[in-house]
Sequence to fold (484 residues):
Amino acid sequence: LPQISRDTRFTLEHAGAYVGDLITPTLRLGVTGLSRAGKTVFITALVKCLCEGGANPPFARLSGIEGLRAYLEPQPDDDVPRFQYEDHLNALQSEPPHWPQSTRRISELRLTLEWPSRGGLFEFLGLSQRLHIDIVDYPGEWLIDLALLDQSYQEWSQHALYTVQRPVFSALAKPFLEFLSTVDPEGVADEQVAIRGAELYTQFLQSARNSGTPYAGLGPGRFLLPGDLEGSPQLTFFPTKTEGGAVESESLLALLERRFASYRKNIVKPFFEAHFSRIDRQIVLVDVLSALNGGAEGLRALEDGLEGVMRAIRPRSESWLAYILGRRIDRIAFAATKADHVHRNAHRQLEDILSKSVSRAAKRAEAAGSAFQCIALAALQATTDVHKDIQGEHLFGVRGIPEAGERIGGRTFDGSRGAVVFPGDLPEDALDAFDEDRARPEHFGFVKFRPPTLERREAGAQVNAWPHIGLDKAFAFLFEDHLP
Ligand code: GDP
Fold:
């Protein structure tokens, strides 16, 4: 490059910094998954590892990029709450450590990666290369609402009542179904009936979700996680038995139809337009181990949920959504979270089971196109592996501190003492887990663990160890093509 005066160089540098800012590429990473799948812990761990990896980042590939640093910047969207990274990190680093408050609504955080330029005008001007990663955390329950955009109230009611009447839910659904048998949809609209019906239907959804049979297709999503809409009249509808045909405008049915339409128009559609449609990369966190606890039925439920995700990510081409969504999300990582509940020997099987669920769901949703990868993940590893040979039998388990109230073989833990847990062998052939006769949920005993005690970094001392499984793999799959 030619010799230039100091003034010219100064001007060029300023112009360069300005242009650099304008041309810094931004990738929006969507982080989703059903409630308690592990979104909050994942984002906190990822940011912590990237920003404070220091001289010895846990991401080996990144430590090879000389001069790379990562830092948080003010997020670009003023109307979206910020992801409370510092609070969540404090929870995990407190004494004793505890898990942070889970995701309840959408939030966002801007992470910037920066490294020195190699070659060209940028290096000459001493400018860095940068990449903004806007992390958008949102409940998977809201994503599954996408299905509603293509449905009428009648279609949705039919689908919802089919779920309510599943044999596994018979006890939980009783209050709602009894109420429903007293309701005349053709009768005159009564606001109190709509409110009562919505309350009972919401109670059913919540208890079904907490019942240990994670039926991911349950919705509408805002009934489970209302975010800022708690108590809003837009959430006062419920499914009814309808015959189709003409609807009297003063009837209860007409009122429920209107509410459903307004939920779709004012809640679901804006969410997709304002947030979802702008996502470039997506990670879907899945609690596969909880699904395995529910046996073949649990995995069917998981697959239904993933099908909903697939439909959202790859809408059918004739849908109006294809217009908005068709352009993006070229990489999706699916992560089986809490992989530290099992020995590392079982991680391949865990990935296989997730991979089967994802492929089957993708086929059902006729989704193809995006590259996807399945990863066994523990954003914060709370256990260490244990291997014992007892009378010629190889046993693989994990050691950690079970949460207060957890039970193993009749023993209840108080949250203060460590234990070795042998959670049972995952099936060698992933297909067995999907088979009614061969799935063996009774063989599994997964236990929740307290987060590990992390060494606090003293000024000037070496960097914290942040134990994790697969966080680097997930990061590499999602972003490597944008790094030097
Ligand atoms: P969210 O609802 O998707 O935001 O879920 P969270 O990130 O809050 O995680 C829910 C719960 O899952 C936590 O409170 C922990 O009990 C557990 N969890 C999440 N990530 C991990 C992990 O990496 N290891 C272990 N052992 N447990 C985890």
The pocket of guanosine-5'-diphosphate is lined by residues 33, 35-41, 99, 102-103, 337-338, 340-341, 378-380, 382, 448-449 (CB under 6 Å). Residues 315-325, 459-464 have pLDDT under 50 and may be disordered. The chain is about 40% helix and 15% strand.
